[in-house]
Amino acid sequence: MQNNRVLISGASVAGPALAFWLRQHGFTPTVVERAPELRDGGYAVDFRGASLRVLERMGLLGQVEAAATRMGDVTYVDGDDRPVVVTPATYQSGELEVLRGDLSRILYDATKDDVEYVFGDSITGLTEHARGVTVTFEHGEPREFDLVVGADGLHSNVRSLVFGDESACRHDLGYYVSIFTVPNHLGLDHVGRFYNEPNRTIGVYSARDNTEAKAMFWFGSAALEYDHRDVEQQRRIVEERFAGVGWETSALLEAMREAPDFYFDSASQIKLDSYAKGRVVLVGDAAYCAAPLSGMGTSLAIVGAYVLAGELAAAAGDHTTAFGAYREEIRGFVDACQKLAVGNGKWFVPPTRAWLRFRNLNYKLLPYLPWRKLIEELPLKAGNAITLKEYAAAPA
Ligand SMILES: Cc1cc2nc3c(=O)[nH]c(=O)nc-3n(C[C@H](O)[C@H](O)[C@H](O)COP(=O)(O)OP(=O)(O)OC[C@H]3O[C@@H](n4cnc5c(N)ncnc54)[C@H](O)[C@@H]3O)c2cc1C
């Protein structure tokens, strides 16, 4: 096996999942994560289709199922908290739903004994030469690796270093989302309550067996200029956009100030003609972010990691062959998942009162519409838009 030493940037979902499979195939992965420790917080993420089969092959499906959110219906309410329409659990929660932080912890625990994790550091330079890549870090000493993988999310550092500026491959869908943990002050029991005003959606759903809740703020907007690292500035953007909005909004905005895990980003997709350059390759959101509106980002990360590691093993570590095969295997799946997000925005964040009424009417009528099954099966179809190969594990 050539190219044994693999450096992975990012320890969320794609990074630890890739480390898991690389170990299975006899490689020696190292994971570097910018955060000082595993990032625990996060929203609920869904699994659909092929990703569940990958979890099963990892032997982790049972653990993920045990951590499932067990979310029920979502009720859309008016300003006085009166139900307008109820949508069933499957619309929001896929086949299996888990908090991103819990998933990350399961993947980390499954790998930490045989994988080197370096927290609190970040790659600053990558110099490729005939036999490998010299990597420099913000804090650690320079090191040699055979291959480097960017699993560092939508704003991937590895991608910027190797593929150039993010603006060339990031496609904003015209929405922003903020999400954070709040007290479960509405006493929700495994359910969600969402409220809309034109161009804005505010949602709360209970989490961790109702001991807390996640608040979610979505708004439609042209591209905003802000600093990705400046949380205070991002909080102010959310406050400004939701000032004067009804229902529970002001209480949730107040709770946002105390939230330990405030998150804010654009709903964006990453589109690249190639996921690799030389000895550097991308996986997960760094390579093909589908945007939260697709509900498929975690599935893509888990399946992408499985395929990338499998193709490297099948090519006995020959990165040129493996990286080409990885893209060929996964591109149809990526396209199907990314397509899902594009039409979803108007349904989730209706732009006008007329659209809001139209959306609610559709949700009310959906159980009686002949094409209901077709609509409901769309996400599952995307989740199954790949036939998983069997990749033989390295002999123990
Ligand atoms: C609100 C919201 C809801 C979502 N809902 C769903 C859903 O229902 N279903 C679904 O499938 N997906 C969902 N997603 C998407 C899903 O969370 C991501 O697609 C998935 O987590 C991708 O994982 P990743 O490991 O590729 O990237 P990320 O989870 O973004 O992880 C990147 C990691 O890299 C680290 N990092 C960043 N920069 C550096 C650096 N310079 N050096 C080292 N490390 C670095 C970060 O700290 C992080 O740990 C949702 C996303 C959001 C925002």
TrEMBL record:
InterPro entries in alphabetical order: FAD-bd, FAD/NAD-bd_sf, FAD_aromatic-hydroxylase
Keywords for this entry?
Monooxygenase, Oxidoreductase
Q: Which GO terms describe its molecular function?
A: FAD binding; monooxygenase activity
Q: Record's superkingdom?
A: Bacteria
Residues forming the FAD-binding domain are: 5-317
Q: Which PANTHER family match?
A: MONOOXYGENASE, OXIDOREDUCTASE-RELATED
Q: In its UniProt entry, what is this protein called?
A: FAD-dependent monooxygenase
* Organism per entry: Amycolatopsis iheyensis
